[in-house]
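Problem 12. The chain below contains 179 residues. Write out its predicted structure in token notation.
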Amino acid sequence: MLGQLLLHYRVVEKIGEGGQGTVYKVIDTSLDRPAVIKVIPPDLTDSAANLLRFEREAKLASSLDHPNICTIFGLHKVGDIHFMAMQYIEGRNVRDLVGGRPLDLRQALSITLQVTDALAAAHSRGIVHRDIKARNVMVNRSGRVKVLDFGLAKLIEGPHASSSDPQLTEMGVPPPSRM
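Solution.
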């Protein structure tokens, strides 16, 4: 994918990979800024449930406008490549930041308060993240926190909420909780 142009996003670096996608740093050539794309693996695009989960992640996360939540720019398909474009956060995730050692108390409290504020904002919109972990929390050089990856998020209120949706449950993925 390196060097490839997807719409106006030029892929410059692979920065991560997980079960639900591969993350690349890109340059948004229309705005001349860094961004990130999360590409759903080709073997998962055959499943309507996987595509629905990916679309749901984009929609739920993009409905949140908060300084501690990663901004989603769009959901796209180019040929057989499905991807979500989002804000690039220069920094390290909490797992890498900790590096097996305790954090300074002030830094730990700052991160905790910012994550709590982000989750409170999501909860006020009826969205539960359900996958908060050190790898899903980025911290930039100035200490600003951004919560990432709403892939397992659940909408608990509103017209599109469902207490159980079998299309969104898959082996290895926690089923929607009953609220």
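Discussion. The two ends are 41 Å apart (CA to CA). Students who got a different answer should revisit the alignment rule from Section 12.3.
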